[in-house]
Amino acid sequence: MQPVLNCGGNWNNGDNAGLWNWNGNNSSSNANSNIGGRILIENYYVAHTILAPWQKTLRKEDGLVGLFSKDREEIKRIMKRVGFLYEKACDIDLIRYAIRQAAKGKTNKHYIAKVLANEESYALKIKEMLESNTLKLSPNRQIVLFDHSCMKERLITVPKFFPDQIIHWVVVLVLEPIFKKGMYRFNCGSVPSRGGLEAKKYVERVLKDEKVRYVAKLDISKFFNSVRPHYLMAMFRRKIKDEKFLRLIEAILENGGDCLPIGYYTSQWFSNFFLEGFDHFVKEELKIKYYVRYVDDMVLADTNKRKLRKAIEEMNKYLGNIGLKLKANYQVWKVHSRPIDFVGFRFYKDKTLLRKKIFFRLCRRVRRIRKTGYITVRQAQGILSLLGWLCHINGWKFYKERIYPYAPKWKLKLIVSNHAKKLNSEVRRNEIQQSKVVRVC
Q: Bridge-partner residues for 300, per DSSP?
C-alpha cells in the first residue's frame, strides 16, 4: 500500500518524531501506537490544487513534499465550503429587492412596469418556482451592437426580465459576499465601489514609486467567449456545497450557451470569480510588485524587465490550463518612456490625460454643435457622458475655453431634465388612460 503522511510518529523506524512532524514511512492502515494523529493528507496533488501558495512548501532536508501552514486554523477556514445558500435565495425580501434592482433604469418599459405594479405577486411566483424546483429559464434574444470605443461588433444576449433577469440578480446577491471574500483587492472591473476610478488611482500611485522601472500591459484574448462552463462549475464546487444552488447556477450557465454571454448580469461577476485564482497566482507566486486588473485588461509593474517577461510566460501557462490565453500583442516597456493607456486614461509621471479616442470624440461633438447652433437631446446626453471623464483629470481650462462657450454643462442638464420630465408625464398619462379603460370594462 502507498505510504502516506501521518501527523506524529517516527521517521525512519528510529526516534520518535513528535506530534507535529511527519511520518511518511507507513501506509494509511498502519496501527503503530507512536503515530500521534491519523492521515494528514492522502494525496499531495489534490491538496496542491485547492490550497493557497503559502500553504505549500518543500522540505528539502527531509526529502519529502509536505504541507506547512502558517496558521492551521486558516487551512480549516479556506477548505470549508459554504452551504445553505438555496434557502437564502428563496427569501421573499431578497427576491423583492432583486426585482427592484433588475428594473433600475428600465422602469419606462411596459413589461417591467407591469411587474413593478404587482411586485408582491411576482415575487411570490419566483419563490414558489424556486421552492418547488419548477423554475424554467426562457430562451434568450440576441442583438449585435457596434462598440465605438474599440471599433468592433459585439454580440449581446438579452434575457427576459421575468423570471430570468430577476433570478440572475437573486443568484448574484446571494453569492456576492462569497465572491468578495476571496477577491483580489485591485480587481476593479464590475465591482461596486471600485471600478475604473479605483484602477486609475492605483496606476497613479504606481508611477510615483521611484523603484518601478518597467511596465507591462496585457489583455486576455476573447475573454467572455472563451470561459467554459465546466471549468467554472468546478471552481464553484470547491467553494459551495449546496447542491440545489449549484444546480441553479448550472441552469443559468446552460441557458447562456457554451460561454459567458455578454448581457447577463451574472457574467461580470462570474468572470471575476473565474480569474480569482489567477490574481492570487500573479501576486503570491510570481511576486509581481504592482498588479491591477480591469476585467480582461491588466497592468503589471516591477523593477526587473526579465522578471516581467518570465511572469507573462507563466501567466499564459496558467490561463492555458483553464482554456484562456493572452493576446500576442502584449507590451513591456521602460516606465516614463511613454504613457500607460489604461481604463480610458493615459498615465504620465506627473499628469493624467484622457485617452485620445475619448478626447477626439468629445471635440467632434462640440464642433458639430458649434456648426449647427443648436443642441439635440441625444447630443446633450452624449456630451454630458464625456464630460464625466473630463471631471477626473485637470481639464478645467480646456472646458472653459473649448466647451463652455458652445455647450455649457448647465444647459445640457436642462435639456436632458426637460426631456425626462416630458417622458414621465407621457407615462403617467398612459397609466391614467389604462386605469379608466379598466374601470369602464
A: 216, 291
